[in-house]
């Protein structure tokens, strides 16, 4: 075991006379000239809102290169500040600000003792950037899809309301035609067109929904459906009934598809049965009617009966 001698009074006096510069100077051995220490530019890690700032990537890479060139342990700089969150001055997304601490800890754990050179560091950064880019692409695709879906639904809303008013108005007109003679019906329409809805209601009686007829009188739901199909960017539907008409309780549905027109269906026998379609939608409407007919035949049950309301214009095509 090495024996340590108690310093003499002269040695202690010599030590006490040393300045701070003398104490911080490099050690020398046997009078050799000390090798100047590599001076590293400090990487700022000031605190912003209690969280250390993350140095610029270029500064960190430059420091990594300098660290790799150091050959004496005593010359290595202090470790960078531990990042535990997102500084207030960083322009990151809300989700990154909320989860930045967990991301930093996960990356610290992942780095572990794997980084042995500046090249290792640059490779690790490229690997992380590749994964991060995929995450950015996924999130961007999700955000854009939501935006496009919201815009498409907004388009549907306006057309749905307009078509519903026009279609229920036609159901009211169908009811009026069935309750009144031809002359009475024409007179009813004249009263409606000249703003005498009260007289029209007295003529038609409670069986006809004159307010609905008035609201939809100047609109053609088929034209509206066609324009909707031309304007929409995704499949859209609107369901409606005929309140105050002979079809009250019977549900109808108009479906539109981009570039494929519209199909009107009636809910009969627990299924939507197409009863009318535009030229662009006729093929799929007829195909659906044929499928329903096959299912009814297989189950030995009668085919759906359309009944009152909108006429069945597809029956002869099935």
Structure, described:
Helix 5 (118-179) packs across helix 8, helix 5 (118-179) runs antiparallel to helix 9 (221-231) and helix 6 (182-193) runs antiparallel to helix 7 (197-204). Strands 3-4-5-6 form a 4-stranded antiparallel β-sheet, sandwiched between helices. A two-stranded antiparallel sheet has the order 1-2. A hairpin with a 2-residue loop joins strand 5 (261-268) and strand 6 (271-277). The protein is an alpha+beta fold and 318 residues long. It has 10 helices and 6 strands; from the N terminus they run ααββαααααααββββα. It has helices at 9-16, 20-24, 57-69, 94-111, 118-179, 182-193, 197-204, 210-216, 221-231, 282-298, and strands at residues 47-48, 51-52, 236-240, 252-257, 261-268, 271-277. It has a domain at 147-317.
| Helix and strand run | HHEEHHHHHHHEEEEH
Number of strands: 6
User: How would you name the oligomeric state of the polypeptide chains in this document?
Assistant: single chain
- How large, in whole angstroms, is the Cα Rg? 41 Å
For the largest beta sheet, what order do the strands appear in spatially?
A: 3-4-5-6
Shape: elongated
Q: Major beta sheet, specifics?
A: 4 strands, antiparallel
**Average predicted local confidence, pLDDT:** 82
Number of helices: 10
Any low-confidence stretches, pLDDT <50, length ≥5? Answer: 37-48
